[in-house]
Prior knowledge:
Layout: H1 3-20, H2 31-37, E1 38-39, E2 49-50, H3 58-65, H4 70-74, E3 80-82, E4 89-91, H5 94-104, H6 107-111, H7 114-120, H8 130-136, H9 144-154, H10 161-166, E5 167-170, H11 186-200, H12 202-207, E6 215-219, H13 226-237, E7 241-245, H14 257-270, E8 274-279, H15 282-288, H16 294-309, H17 312-315, E9 317-323, H18 331-334, E10 339-342, H19 348-358, E11 363-365, H20 369-374, H21 381-397, E12 402-404, H22 405-422, H23 431-437, H24 444-448
Parallel strand pairs: 6-9, 6-10, 7-8, 8-9, 11-12
Antiparallel strand pairs: 1-2, 3-4, 5-7
Helix pairs in contact: 1-5, 2-3, 7-8, 14-16, 19-21, 21-22
Amino acid sequence: MSDRALDVVEFLLTAHIYSENRQLDANDLPPRYRRVFWAEAEDDEEIGGIERPLVATEETTRQATGVDDPWSAVSDLMFTEKEDFSGRISLTQPEMALDWLVKRADRERFATNPTLAAAAEDHADVDVTHEEARDSNRPIQADRVWIDSLLDSYFDEEEDAEMLDLVSIRAPEEIEMKLDDLVLTTDQEGEIEKVVKAIEHRDYLARIGLREIGKLLFVGPPGTGKTTISRALAHELGLPFVEVKLSMITSQYLGETAKNVDKTFEVAKRLSPCILFMDEFDFVAKTRSSDEHAAIKRAVNTLLKSIDEVSLIQDDVLLIGATNHPDQLDSAAWRRFDEIVNFPKPDYQMRADILRIVTQRMEIAEFDPESVAEKTEGLTGSDLRLVLREAVLEALTEERTTLTQQDILDAVEDFEERDNLKNMDMIDGDHDALVAGDGGSSADGEDHGHSHSHD
């Protein structure tokens, strides 16, 4: 039996079982199905949801399964039928359909579908419980549709536009990077493991009164992966990723800065469980020690107070700060965090590992990542990706999609020449701005330029 038929029958069964069993809720539906059945609230101040019954039409089935012609995939099965006028596809004998699916589907299909697992628990051939499947299913609060609905219900588009300029919110499904795609130091792996365990055992930590956990500060040069690993962690844990650029607080367009900071933390708590990532954290110390406008200083004080009040254990918010300039942080900033994670430039072996990962889908004749690693001392993961991008583009100008080792070595040399030019004193303008524009800052450059590299 084809995967097309299995996919369609799973969807039809899920819609039927969920509609019939009122004890199931939206977290029992796989995220790919929740998107299809999500309905916006009629009242702007309310959050949308998923309403019963779930009607499987040709269109909803196509959206949920990716099967172009779903009816043709199951039309020869004796337990399916289609209404020509409405396009609805349904099951005439749901129990027969479940037996049919149990005999043909692998364990993964039930383990990723709590609704299906709930119905198949009594089948001897299925060793997945409803509870197991539900625990592994991403909660609906992490879906893009739920996030957007929450924001629409809570924020006035005109009044709160300034606050929304401060914050970027990504659903886990929108983050392509995975932790397995990254090269981590031993310390970084250890800190991630501790965070994961703390999230898994939040109730226990609260019971023993250990609440000062879950505030991390990532420290290291631009391009070493502070943003990337934070986003990958959100993907791994299935959590919304709320990103704040602290330097935006100084924007001339942000009038009520302290109020906006308050709302930033409030939206993180409403989206919880989530990761709240605050980039450019050295901005806090710079502002506190400077002659900045009083309103901005109030905003920073509000920020520090909000950090004190947010908690992984109580609020389900994992707080991660990041800085390229730890030397500029004062004691008030340092003491807000319970763990400091170092992001150094990658050593020789890490550079070789990064090169292997980034080039997995490239064709490179006689590729020797160790040789390239020897010649790229001092380059970050972001730098290495830029080198490979240059090598690919240069080869394309010669109508080649297969690279050579020399292409990469030439790209390394070109990168170093550009890097030297970037640091020349004769260049006019703001040096820091030039660095940021080259993709090496902790802004988007760290995300895109370092998407497969060292963290």
